[in-house]
Description:
The chain contains 4 helices and no strands. It is an all-alpha fold.
Amino acid sequence: MNVDVKKMLKAVTVCDLIVAALIFFVALIIKPEYSLILLFGIITAVFNFYVSTITANLVLVKGIGTKLLIVFSSVFRVILVCIISILLYKIKQYYLIAYIAGYSAHFIALIFYGLLLKNNERK
């Protein structure tokens, strides 16, 4: 992996940790039973982000494998999230909402990363 991709992954991970901690503690105060499900959603989203980034980097930058690997990786990640969602829904319907909220919180971290990147470019 090139240096820029490693920097990006590190920065996004820091943003994810901050967002995850905030959401976890807020959920712990408001609705404690959903806090771990929210956290699990964020962890799943981060895992998907890492797998996607590493797969794309291997195929597009290093030339290892074919573009079909990116497709298989995407299908695997979608199936994984669907299975987790179905299992959580079967346990308790509202767990699905908490999981999706946690999964979506990863995008908040990506926005923070983008804003940090924009601020660093101005300097």
